[in-house]
Each structure stands twice: as C-alpha cells, then as structure tokens.
Design a protein that fits this description.
This protein is mainly α. A hairpin with a 4-residue loop joins β15 and β16.
C-alpha cells in the first residue's frame, strides 16, 4: 500500500554503515557516516536504452551482519548438506506427494513450480513410480568420503600461492591497467584538438578507448574470480566439515526426470574439484581388469578419451615408466609436475587417480591395491545415441558408437568431414558470395568449429544460436583471424562466415543423422499442435512411469511504482494460470524428451547396479563405479539401454498424446465442433496445416490426422539394437 514507499524512503535516508549513538535529524548524511544503502541506475550493454536500478549495500555492512568472517559456513544450510546417515528411501502413499531424501526437512521429489506436474505426481500410483524410486534410492545408498590428498593440495595452494597457480581462482584481484599519460593542463598528451594535432589526438583517443576496454576486461575477470572464490569456499567448507566421515547424497528430480543430488556445493554433479574431492567410502581390491580401467580413466581425464581403450592404457603405462605419475603424486606443485597437471582437462580428478596409480604401482601386488576412486564411463554424444536408437538409424548409430568398431567413432569429426566437402565444392564451383566465403574457409576448418553446434543439436539450438557458436570458434583460428582483421568490417565478415558455415553444418547434420532430425521435427510439430489447438502444455509419461509436464507459460508482469523507481515484477512464465508459451513448448520438446530418456536409462542402470552389488553414481550420461566393477557396469548399462529402447517409444508417446488430446465428447471428427476456429496469426488462412482450436469449451483435442500429415509417426530404420552389447565405445 502507501506505507511501502515511505518505509523505503526512511530506510534509505536513515540507515548508516555503522549505527550511530543517536541518529540526528537528516539521517545518514547528517551523521557523517556513509549511507548503508545507495540507489544506482545502470544502462544496458553499450549504453543501451534499457535501464536497471540497484540498491547497493555499503562494503562495511556485511561484516556487521555476518559478524565472524567464517560465518560463510552458515550460508550452507544444514538441510542442504550431505547426510551422515543413508537418506530416507523414496516412497508414496495413495493421494499424497512422494516422500524421501532428508529425514526432518521436506524435500520434493520433483523440482518444479508447476501445479499441474505436482498434481500428476500426487495422482500417480506408488507402484507406477516404483522404478523411479528404486533408481533414486540406489544412487542415495552409495557412501562417500572426502579425498584427503586432494583437499590437502587445495589447502596448500590457498595458503602459499595467492595467485592460484592456475589450479584455483586468484585470491588477489588483478591490478587495473595504467591510464594513458595526461598533460599538465589536463588534456591527454598531444590531444589539443587543433587541426594540426588531429592525428596525435586521434591516437590518444584510441589509447584511451583501449585503456577503457582493458579496464572493463580486468573488472570482468575480477568479478568472475570473486564468484569462483565464493564457490570454492562453499565447497571447501563442506569438505572440511565432513573430512574423515562417511556421508551420502539425497537425490531428487528435475521436471524432466533427471536425477540430481540435493546438496548444491559438494556433489558428483559439481566441477572438477568437487568430483576430485569425492571418493567411495569403501575401497575395493582393484584387480587386473580394474587396474586397466584406472589407466583408461586417467588417460580420459587428461584428454585422450578419443583414443582406443588399449592406447589409453598404454599412454598411462608410459607415464608410469617415466616416473611422471609417481612424481605428480608426491610433489604436485613442482613446476614440471604442475605443468603436466594443468595440461589435463580435469587436473584435480587426475591428481586423485595419479595418487592411486602410484600407490598401486609401488605395491608388491598392484592387483591387490585397495582403490576408492570412482571410474567413469561416458556416453558418446548421448542425446544423439538416444535419437539414433529411437529411429533405428544405422548411419547415425555408427557415428555415435551404437555399433562395434575398432576405434571410437568421433561424431564431431564425422560432421566436420561432410562440412569440409561442401566448403571445398563451393570453393571450386560456386559463384559470388558463396565462393568468396568458401575460399576463405577452405582448408582451415577444425573439429572444435562444429563441436558445440553438433552437441547442442538435440537441445534445440536455433540457426542464430548455431551461428553465434561457430563465430566464437572462428575467432579462435589464428590464420583466419589474421586475414579477417584486415577487412574493412571484421565483425561483419565473421558473421557472414559463421552464417555460411551454420547453413552447411545444419544440412550436414541432416545428412548424417537424418532419422534423428526427422524425429526432432516430428516432436516439434506435435508440440506445436498441442499448444495451438489444445492450448495445453506438452505432457508425457517416461518409460519408468514418471509424469512430465513442460512448465512453459507466458510470463505475467506487474508494474509497481516506488519512491525510487518503477519495478516490473514477472513470474517468468511459471504460472499454470497463464496461457502456454507455444514457442518455448516447441523449442523445449526435443531436448526435454531425450533428457527424460537418458534419465530413465540412468535410473534403470542404478537399480540393476545395486542388485549386482556395485557402488553406483552418475552424472546424467557418465556412469561411475569402482575400477574392479567397471566391466560389470559396462555390461549392465548396455543391457538397460537395449531394454529401454526395445519398445517403439515414439509410437507409445503418440498413443498417449492421442488419448490425452482427443474429442472431449468422444465423437472424434464427426463432432460438429471438431474443425473449430483457426488460430489467429498462425499459418496461412487457406492452408489445411493451419491449427484450428475446437469451439467446444474445455476441449483439448488435436486433429492428429490433419495438418498435412506432419503429425504422422516417422518411419524407422533397420538398426539392430542388440549390437550395442558388443560395442566397446558405446560408453567408455
């Protein structure tokens, strides 16, 4: 009401950074102390018209609020920490929400604000959700301990090396760049502005612009380092508290069914340091096969995950023979050893494995060495693996290692080769702009240029998004950069090159993964029909019985006037009361559906692993076990993938959608309301593909046989899924 502006105004005027004995008339300014809060307005990027207002807290205020600087530990809420007892098993009583995870703090099974999704969960039968519960309970049953050697390494770096040595964020901010020299009269040197001094003045203005650019860059890097330091301290706070203890992670799901630990700071889904700090609570004898898997794991962590398995093991054997791994384990901060670690993609996890390998190598019987290191087996572009299985796509299956091969197939290199052929053909035969761009790119393309675009294809990347991804990679190519920077408008030239390459990348993906792309287009068409004709969010049930609802609705906004500024409040499209956001429903269905499949595969494997006595953990498409159990887990995860995809999942999905979105009167196309009214602003007026909403109030039917046949189930190929069981690089 009217009291709110008065309260804001009073706090802004009277609050001081430190409380005075008696606040005088006039508030903080009159008492001689700094204001505790100040209102700032910041313009958008590059001085844009959009403005945002901020209320900033004085730097002296946080210590007053927190007291002891170590109070950062209290920011980690106890109910969010790992548990020192096994979590409560997930279960469900009829008509109630599922219960599990923490004992004394309510924890939802699904992280969603959608009332429709929560209602579907409450309505579901406990037996229907039993496979989901079993998988989550299997993940939660795995015990963990902090890896003391990794923790000691981080503590040593923090205590002795404020620069971080490249291993942890800098503890001291970067100094700002020196400003350009200034004349005694106050003007920049040589910048008198006269016609004669115009060239000098221009150079000075350029140096000032460069100084400002460098200053912004330093500010940006310091802000990023500050954020990383905060995250580091939160992780270390949990690790220090649990050092020497056995602990467990409670798990729940996101709205697609993907499983996550409830603990936010130190967990298996964290960064390299978080994973390096974790080891199994119970070590097991590594065995001969496990020793080989430890070596394969070490090579993969270094970045050699595209080599055949035997070559990865041989690379580690060479590092052991040279003494490098033993040296890294004993003195990781020595200059050469640190450089070796920093050359790895995951240095902290690699250090943990190096310590384990060094200990096994030094023992009288390496196979008897007790190892607690989690060994990972990762899927090969897992989203495309699922789409290839859905469409029984033989060609796509070969590119993502669904079929056996002597060496791991590289899907990114495969797409790149098709792109290279098209660019070379344009350079030789095309005319105009296509030839010009092709000549500039021919012979300069590398794997990383298309990697991100291929990886994000199953996540619904748009042409604009793909163009931006490719442009960032093109700027990293030295030879190309040297040539483009000489152009009159380098930024525009990069955009032209990226647009040209994005078109070829999209068409190449359509050639290499045609059934996958057709399946994604079919899902998008169905989502469009459900959104436009039924006016409903897209819902489905995963193969494990979990109901999924896409929570995308149009945002609701309210404007509130305060004494400081106008505020716009938005619910960010999470309210079920608002109309569905059809565009987001369409863009979301290809990635969300495949995520519901990869989560089903993970939970099925977790349950099977627990029955087999394997200590299991996973990060979506990266499955972990003790080294000695890696072969057994590899067989289980392949079996579960084949069983998951044995039914025709798209046919079952279409059947569920047809049942959910049929004529509410049960008359089908014979209903007088069936054709309904055309959705305004969508499609061509005289086109049968234009969506039409039923004129019967409350009906959520979709004309599944209309829309030009776009909703007909896509055809499948002839891939024999059973060959997955013999593919060594399906997960490796």
């Amino acid at each position: 009401g009217e009291e709110a502006p008065l309260q804001i105004d009073a706090v802004m005027r009277a609050a001081c950074a430190a409380p005075p004995a008696a606040p005088p008339e006039g508030g903080a300014a009159a008492c001689g102390l700094a204001k505790a809060f100040a209102h700032h307005v910041a313009r958008g990027h590059e001085g844009g018209v959009k403005a945002r207002g901020y209320i900033r807290m004085h730097a002296a205020l946080p210590p007053l609020l927190l007291g002891d600087p170590s109070a950062v530990r209290r920011l980690v809420l106890p109910e969010q920490s790992p548990m020192v007892s096994p979590p409560l098993a997930w279960h469900k009583e009829p008509g109630r929400a599922p219960v599990g995870g923490f004992y004394h703090t309510p924890s939802p099974l699904m992280r969603t604000l959608s009332r429709r999704a929560l209602s579907r969960l409450a309505e579901a039968d406990g037996a229907q959700l039993r496979p989901v519960f079993d998988g989550l309970n299997a993940c939660a049953a795995t015990g963990w301990r902090v890896n003391g050697r990794v923790l000691a390494l981080v503590e040593s770096v923090l205590a002795r090396h404020p620069c971080g040595l490249g291993l942890v964020p800098r503890q001291l901010p970067r100094p700002p760049p020196q400003p350009p020299p200034v004349r005694a009269g106050g003007d920049e040197e040589g910048g008198d502005g006269s016609a004669a001094g115009g060239g000098v003045a221009g150079a000075v203005r350029a140096s000032v612009r460069e100084w400002r650019r460098q200053s912004r860059l330093v500010d940006k890097l310091n802000a990023e380092d500050h954020s990383l330091r905060c995250a580091l301290q939160l992780k270390l706070g949990v690790a220090r508290q649990l050092a020497g203890e056995t602990f467990y992670f409670a798990y729940n799901l996101d709205f697609r069914g993907r499983a996550y630990p409830c603990s936010p700071h130190l967990s298996v889904v964290g960064d390299d340091l978080a994973r390096g700090l974790l080891q199994y609570a119970e070590p097991r004898p590594v065995g001969e096969a496990g020793l080989r898997w430890l070596k394969v794991h070490a090579a993969s962590l270094y970045g050699h995950d595209k080599l055949p398995l035997h070559e990865r093991a041989e690379w580690v054997d060479a590092q052991l023979a040279s003494g490098r791994i033993a040296a890294v384990a004993s003195a990781p901060l020595d200059e050469e050893n640190r450089a070796w670690l920093l050359g790895a993609e995951n240095p902290f996890q690699l250090y943990a494995v190096a310590c384990d390998l060094a200990a096994a190598h030094a023992s009288a019987d390496p196979a008897a060495h007790l190892s607690a290191i989690p060994v990972a087996q990762d899927g090969s572009c897992n989203g495309l693996q699922h789409y290839a299985a859905l469409g029984r796509d033989e060609m796509g299956g070969r590119h993502v290692n669904l079929t056996p091969g002597e060496r791991p197939a590289d899907v990114y290199a495969g797409v790149l080769e098709v792109v290279k052929r098209k660019v070379a053909a344009d350079a030789a035969e095309a005319e105009g702009e296509a030839r010009e761009l092709a000549l500039q790119l021919d012979g300069r393309l590398v794997r990383k240029v298309v990697k991100q675009s291929v990886m994000t294809t199953v996540y619904g990347v748009t042409f604009v998004g793909m163009r931006e991804q490719i442009e960032r990679r093109l700027r990293e190519l030295p030879e190309l950069a040297a040539e483009v920077e000489e152009a009159a408008q380098p930024d525009r030239q990069y955009t032209r090159l990226a647009s040209y390459l994005a078109k070829h990348t999209m068409s190449s993906l359509g050639e290499v993964f045609e059934p996958a792309m057709v399946a994604m287009e079919w899902l998008a068409s169905c989502a469009s029909a459900i959104g436009h004709e039924a006016g409903s969010p897209v819902e489905w049930t995963t193969p494990l019985g979990l109901p999924v609802v896409q929570p995308y609705h149009k945002p609701r906004r309210r404007e509130i006037r305060t004494v400081l500024q106008r505020l716009t409040l938005s619910d960010m499209g999470t309210s079920d009361d608002e109309p569905v956001d059809v565009r987001r429903q369409v863009m979301g269905i290809p990635p969300n559906y495949v995520h519901s499949l990869d989560s089903s595969h993970m939970l099925m494997t977790a349950s099977a692993a627990r029955e087999a006595g394997i200590a299991f953990a996973a990060v979506h498409d990266s499955f972990w076990s003790h080294a000695c159990d890696a072969d057994a887990l590899g067989a289980l995860l392949r079996d579960q993938f084949v069983e998951l995809h044995r039914p025709n999942l798209l046919q079952a999905l279409l059947g569920e959608w047809r049942a959910r979105h049929s004529c509410s009167l049960g008359r089908g196309a014979a209903c007088e309301h069936f054709e309904g009214r055309a959705v305004r602003g969508v499609g061509d007026r005289d086109d049968d593909t234009r969506p039409r909403r039923c004129s019967q109030p409350g009906c959520a039917r979709v004309r599944w046989d209309g829309r030009g046949g776009a909703l007909q189930l896509p055809k499948r190929g002839n891939l024999d899924l059973d060959v997955v069981r013999q593919s060594p690089y399906f997960f490796s």
